[in-house]
Amino acid sequence: MPKACILIADGTEEMEFTITYDTLVRAGVSCASAYVAAEGADASSTSPPFARGSRGINILPDMFFSPQDCTPDKFDLLVVPGGATGAATIAGSAPVQHLVRRFLEEGKFVGMICAGSLAAKTAGLPKQPLTSHPSVKSELEKEFEYSEEPVVVSGTLVTSRGPGTTFPFALTLVELLCGADRRSEVAGPMVFPPHTFA
Amino acid sequence: MPKACILIADGTEEMEFTITYDTLVRAGVSCASAYVAAEGADASSTSPPFARGSRGINILPDMFFSPQDCTPDKFDLLVVPGGATGAATIAGSAPVQHLVRRFLEEGKFVGMICAGSLAAKTAGLPKQPLTSHPSVKSELEKEFEYSEEPVVVSGTLVTSRGPGTTFPFALTLVELLCGADRRSEVAGPMVFPPHTFA
């Protein structure tokens, strides 16, 4: 069973987080959400606090993020969701940046969506095709081959644009981890309107 | 500012809950999530426990559901999300059934999605157009004018099908509460792929 580590912080876009996590679980991917504390925050507790989403939904993460626990030998996929404040915390974390590089170096998948794509820049990834939320395009278009496709796959780096592209983003991750048949099996019961994502 | 009460229980489909809540907040609707305890559960605490979603995401509700606090004089919209177990708890609650009737009698909106549409049956609503998740169609098609459209508006009752139709469901609620212009303003930054929901 493939395993995914989905990062979350205060200010994470809760639709992007939830759609990705839930769709992967439906595909049989074992998911763990890992809370990235803002710089200077008290991270001494043994259990993570609620992450307050960008639109006020409080989500209890499964674990604290730690560079020792969220490694490519334990997970097949690392996901960085958007939400301006949450993405700033996650993309600004040096341990996250280090892990993004390690996952890609070891051929594991990394997903970034919306403002989460800023982690490609902060991690210093080489120039390659990428997309993001339009609001952060100007911060990425020089360093990357910027695309406006809903989902961009570049090797094992998968990027996407916003809440409205999270279903195709998550289903693309399902297809890469579990195959095209599983993607269809998962999409069917989700009842997409005709001519959308199925 | 319109106000929405979004019900949640253990087993609620977390994408349907989160997309609806978040999209309404983006439109300027004041949202409160209200936890419906399963029958026989201890509801004596003053603050609700987290609701464990159908795919394992734990969400902290804003308040306990109570027939005194979730009334049509306080809210313009009542939402029943899906997820088989959560919908069974919510649709099976006599106080919820009573409130569904009161909201509709007073011309307020009621949204039901996925298995949440079973609340139309348990509340004893009159025969009218309605949709639901295909898995519960057989329980509804005799009592209602069953439709397979992604979103069905019947007076102030709005029904929909599953996670894949939650964006058009939520955007329809935005349009009904706040107008078509607000729907467009909200949909734009969500970056839907061309030819989907915007």
Automatic annotation (TrEMBL), chains A, B:
Catalysed conversion reaction: methylglyoxal + H2O = (R)-lactate + H(+)
Domain of life, per lineage: Eukaryota
GO cellular component: mitochondrion; nucleus
Its EC number(s): 4.2.1.130
GO terms for MF: glyoxalase III activity
CDD domains: GATase1_DJ-1
Stretches assigned to the DJ-1/PfpI domain: 3-175
GO biological process: glyoxal metabolic process; response to oxidative stress
One Pfam family in the UniProt entry: DJ-1_PfpI
Signal peptide feature range: none
Enzyme class: lyase
NCBIfam families xref list: not_thiJ (TIGR01383)
PANTHER family according to UniProt: PARKINSON DISEASE PROTEIN 7 HOMOLOG, PROTEIN/NUCLEIC ACID DEGLYCASE DJ-1-RELATED
UniProt protein name: D-lactate dehydratase
Lineage of source species: Eukaryota, Fungi, Dikarya, Basidiomycota, Agaricomycotina
